[in-house]
Amino acid sequence: MIIPHPLLGPRDSSEFVYLGDASLIDRPDWQAENAAEAFYDYAYLRGNPAGEHHELWYHEGGDRSWLVVTRNTVTHEISKVELARDVARAQGRSK
Amino acid sequence: MRYSGFQVIKQVLTGHRGWIPAWRDPEPKAHYDIVIIGGGGHGLATAHYLAKVYGHRKVAVIEKGWIGGGNVGRNTTIIRSNYLLDGNEPFYEFSLKLWEGLEQDLNYNAMVSQRGILNLIHSDAQRDAYTRRGNAMILNGADAELLDAEQVRKECPFLNFDDARFPIKGGLAQRRGGTVRHDAVAWGYARSADGYGVDIIQNCEVSGFRIEDGKCLGVETSKGFIGAGKVGCAVAGNSGRVMGMAGMKLPIESHVLQAFVSEGLKPVLPGVITFGAGHFYVSQSDKGGLVFGGDLDGYNTYAQRGNLPVVEDVCEGGMALMPMIGRARLLRMWGGVMDMSMDGSPIIDRTPVDGLYFNGGWCYGGFKATPASGYCFAHLLAQDEPHPTATAYRLDRFRTGRMIDEKGVGNQPNLH
């Protein structure tokens, strides 16, 4: 697979390390009432869709940026790649 | 029809015109006591043990394609019970014992071959770990034997003992491990279950569950609604997809694992050899091909094919371990989709939906588990309580902190 890096252009997927579902960006509030349940869901449960999947890739063999890649899990087609930083900020995270 | 030497002679004398199909091809009935989704090894084994051991005959196995067309036909055929943890080892040893009696149980030649499995050791720390594992196996009634480098050299003189990075210092052998003809496992279980009256319905895809007031009443399929007292789901690889139709999120990701076969060679390997440090394991099929594999590709996928970086990695591992294979040509390669669970261990349990039962999360260890998985799932479906060897495989163990993590890598499915 070739991942079109937003800053570096097309890069081979073997330069990257795969973490998993991009929902891992949304760490629950540890002080919330339902924190235990929310962390169980966050840490262990996955949507695991057959089709479009938002996922985190780390460019370890490159610029060490975290990317949110939108990829089809049936065809391996990549439709969108964003810096995870931008995605997190757009969701209201400060860093 | 019972298969026997006498039957073969009789058929030879009558021109082989008397053989009948090994199972029927029925249309679905309106209602069954138990419907099993997934006509793979685990689903068919479940049907066999439900009928034979627990006496349930009104059972259907529904399969979206043809039986045995999924992972039971796409694995590397290895059986073993060399696990460490209490939650796992009794289950896998139970499975190995069922393998040992499988052909007599099914009246079907599954070519169970206990040619042994050898895990290689490269360091003192690894020897300590394998010693502990071997002791755990023996405590659970399995066999284990620790070999030093000279003993390994005697059995496998072709290995690269003096590799600079991973010199071979010994191995942990399980002599009762080995290989099985994988397709025959599906066919043998199907034939046996069919003989007890189980309906095996192929080309019938589940499109949804009928759930009312928290109770599962049956499944919607491409051949219409099929009512069921209980529904068991055994579709590992596609568990996320199917259980998603029941509104459930699972502690599972789907990943692809690749496997490879070389051209046929004269017998060179005595048994199964695993080179965990180099991401490579290999055995030789009865046709002579070297059957080998390595790591997951590592990303979520439902495509039954992998990518080239892993092909390179696996072949490099093979060359590092046994340089003699350098001239052998690769004949075929393929990928199978795995349910990778959050602790690397499977799930056989009830679900929050009444009447809906789940079997999955087999990671890349599903094939060896087939008989025990079927037996324990049948036990759960028939008696509504877990089989004694499968009590740890709870669906909610991640909530309660009772993980069974052989490798101790945590909730990162692509590392298990």
Radius of gyration of chain A, rounded?
14 Å
CATH topology of the largest domain in chain B: FAD/NAD(P)-binding domain
The coarse silhouette of chain A is globular
Structural class of chain B: alpha/beta
**Beta-strand segment tally of chain A:** 6
Using the alpha-carbon principal axes, give the shape of chain B.
globular
CATH architecture assignment name of chain A = 2-Layer Sandwich
Instruction: Work out the largest interface and the residue count of each chain.
Output: A-B, 25 and 25 residues
Number of helices of chain B: 11
- Give the class-level CATH name of chain A: Alpha Beta
Q: Could you please describe the fold and organization of this structure?
A:
The complex is a heterodimer of chains A (95) and B (416). By secondary structure, chain A is α+β, with helices and mostly antiparallel strands. Chain A has one domain (2-90): Folate-binding superfamily (Folate-binding fold). Helix content of chain A is 18%, strand content 35%. Chain A has two helices and six strands, in the order βββαβββα. In chain A, the strands form two sheets. A four-stranded antiparallel β-sheet of chain A has the order 3-4-5-6. In chain A, a hairpin with a 3-residue loop joins strand 1 and strand 2 (9-12). In chain A, 17% of the residues are buried. The mean pLDDT of chain A is 95. Chain B folds into two domains: 27-81 and 84-107 and 182-251 and 343-415, FAD/NAD(P)-binding domain (3-Layer(bba) Sandwich); 117-177 and 253-341, D-Amino Acid Oxidase, Chain A, domain 2 (2-Layer Sandwich), CATH 3.30.9.10. Chain B is built from eleven helices and 18 strands. In chain B, the strands form three sheets. In chain B, strands 1, 2, 8, 9, 10, 11, 17 and 18 form an eight-stranded mixed β-sheet that branches. Chain B is globular. The termini of chain B are far apart. With 416 residues, chain B is α/β, with parallel strands linked by helices. In chain B, strand 1 (31-37), helix 2 and strand 2 (59-62) form a beta-alpha-beta unit. Chain B has helices at 5-13, 41-52, 89-100, 102-106, 124-139, 149-155, 182-195, 239-244, 308-321, 366-383, 397-400, and strands at 31-37, 59-62, 78-79, 117-121, 145-148, 170-174, 178-179, 199-201, 206-212, 215-221, 224-233, 252-264, 272-275, 280-284, 289-300, 330-341, 347-350, 356-360. The chains are: A alpha+beta (95), B alpha/beta (416). Chains A and B meet through strand 3 and helix 1 of A and helix 8, strand 12 and strand 15 of B.
